[in-house]
Specification:
It contains 4 helices and 3 strands, in the order βααββαα. It is an alpha+beta fold and 76 residues long. The protein has 2 domains: 39 residues, 3-Layer(aba) Sandwich (YefM-like fold); 37 residues, no CATH class. A 3-stranded mixed β-sheet has the order 1-2-3. The longest helix is centred in the middle third of the chain and has 16 residues.
């Protein structure tokens, strides 16, 4: 995972696009806080598919997911 500022991303978009095309992930910070993640389409579709399968199988715990999201926000 690559972490960059919004300004760095703006100035070197092509470089980070290549990183994503190669299978990487780019986290974009503004004022020290994560505002976005750039991932490949395949990675995004895979993530969403996995989450949907969990929901359909009844393995989805919205409280656990919410707690995990809040934990990640606290770390940022």
């Amino acid at each position: 995972m690559t972490i960059v500022t919004a300004t760095e991303m703006q100035n070197n978009f092509g470089k980070y696009l290549q990183t994503v095309q190669a299978g990487g992930e780019v986290v974009i910070l503004r004022n020290g806080k994560e505002v976005a993640r750039l991932v490949s389409r395949d990675a995004a579709v895979s993530f969403l598919t996995d989450e949907l399968v969990g929901v359909l199988k009844g393995n989805y715990d919205d409280k656990a997911v919410r707690a995990e999201r809040l934990h990640h926000e606290d770390l940022d």
